[in-house]
Design goal:
437 residues; alpha+beta; five-stranded antiparallel beta sheet; 21 strands
Length: 437
């Protein structure tokens, strides 16, 4: 345990000054931290890598930094289930699984998050027949507000499990996540620019045909970058990108050069639309194959802030049409592309894909550039279409509005009251999005 100091999230938009920071190495350490905070009448928040854009981890009370409690604890290669410590980053998890001939069935495109933080906030990838990370969870271990360690699954403490799969850190400190993995696999990646009008008109067919499908629309440009990933036999895959090409295209173009364009656009907003058209016009195709996690994930060195909305998939076309019109009316231009993905319906209580096939629309803005106007316009359009905001990304909805969008919202709140009646694990943001305990 140490004095807190100042903590910042990845984008630098959220800061906190906890009075104490616990860095557990064992479950007993987590138990001790929870009991100490409760005895002091303080609040306690778990934190991972800080990749949420909301103040989920912020506290002026006690913080639990799980970065030192990491690694695979158990691997069953017969059932393909693994038990992993909560502070393990997705990047480290992917490499450890690969060493055992295993993989996650689906991943997002950023691997800096801890597994517990990614699951808790509803992190997802893309694929019309696949769910988010929470759908790959078969059990969770938590330390509750009274200091008791609890194991939950569909068979043991099923209501707690249903709530905790996307639990926002509101139910306890997760210490272990048990995952259902799949045999390691290879993806063929095809990435190419296409006319935006054609992409929007064909999105349903394209998303249904691919194992994983997404596209990036550069505002002010006429083209989108379409990414399609499909599972193939290793001998049917094209070769991986060479180290030189990966360095040039990812490090130089997608990070260094794009970051320079963003800095210019932030300093001289009047030229941002022209820069967006330039970025759209220079997109180039590529095709390669590689282990799944190397295709799914990319390094993001250009700092941004993000808002993302989960829509009923059938509403995607109308929402995109409204966004295309809205971006032209903005006083402050957009410097980042819009990302569109899809996911299958699931039964996780607070999953953004609960009960419906889902399309995700994610909008970003370069750190330091004005974002309220753009995020506000997107939020209004998406919310009117029944959208649910990503729990880890900026949005404007409160508990009353969110309750209308989640059939199991009250069930989640009931479990929260049962396991944390005094609100040990809450903060101002959780009170805003869930209501007080």
């Amino acid at each position: 345990m140490a004095r807190g100091g100042t903590w910042r999230n990845w984008s630098g938009t959220v800061t906190a000054a906890p009075s104490r920071v616990h860095r557990p190495r064992t479950v007993d350490d987590v138990v001790a931290a929870v009991r100490e905070a409760a005895a002091e009448g303080a609040r306690l928040r778990p934190r991972g890598s800080g990749h949420s854009f909301t103040p989920l981890a912020a506290t002026d009370g006690h913080a639990v930094d799980l970065g030192g409690f990491a690694g695979l604890e158990a691997v069953d290669t017969t059932t393909r289930r693994v038990r992993v410590r909560a502070g393990t980053t997705l990047r480290a998890l992917d490499r450890a699984l690969d060493a055992h001939g295993l993989a996650m069935a689906n991943l997002g495109d950023i691997d800096a998050q801890t597994i517990s933080g990614a699951v808790a906030t509803g992190t997802h990838g893309t694929g019309a027949r696949l769910g988010g990370l929470a759908t790959q969870v078969t059990a969770l271990d938590l330390v509750l507000a009274d200091g008791s360690p609890v194991h939950c699954s569909a068979a043991e403490e099923p209501d707690l499990f249903a709530a905790a799969r996307v639990g926002l850190g509101a139910l306890g400190v997760v210490t272990h996540v048990t995952l259902q993995c799949v045999p390691a696999f290879v993806l063929r990646a095809i990435e190419r620019p296409e006319p935006l009008d054609d992409v929007v008109a064909d999105v349903d067919r394209a998303a249904d045909e691919a194992d994983h499908y997404e596209f990036y629309w550069f505002p002010y440009g006429a083209r989108a970058l379409v990414k399609r990933n499909d599972r193939v036999a290793p001998d049917a895959a094209p070769p991986p990108l060479s180290p030189l090409r990966r360095f040039v295209e990812y490090d130089l173009v997608e990070n260094a050069a794009f970051g320079a364009l963003c800095r210019i656009g932030r300093a001289a907003p009047s030229v941002a639309p022209a820069l967006g058209r330039l970025a759209s016009s220079v997109l180039s195709p590529r095709e390669y194959g590689d282990r799944s996690h190397r295709v799914f994930t990319t390094r993001r060195r250009v700092r941004f802030v993000e808002s993302e909305w989960a829509l009923p998939r059938e509403r995607l076309g109308e929402v995109l049409a409204e966004l295309r019109a809205a971006v032209l009316r903005l006083e402050h231009p957009v410097l980042f592309p819009v990302e569109v993905r899809v996911a299958a319906a699931d039964d996780v209580w607070l999953s953004t894909a609960h009960g419906r096939d889902t399309a995700y629309v994610a909008v970003h803005q370069y750190v330091g550039a004005p974002r309220q106007e753009w995020f506000g316009a997107v939020g209004a359009i998406a919310a009117a279409a029944g959208g649910r905001p990503h729990w880890g990304k900026e949005h404007h909805l409160d508990a009353a509005a969110l309750r209308e969008r989640y059939p199991c919202f009250d069930a989640f709140r009931r479990v929260r009251r049962d396991v944390d009646p005094s609100g040990l694990f809450t903060n101002a943001h959780l009170d805003h999005v869930l209501g007080p305990v």
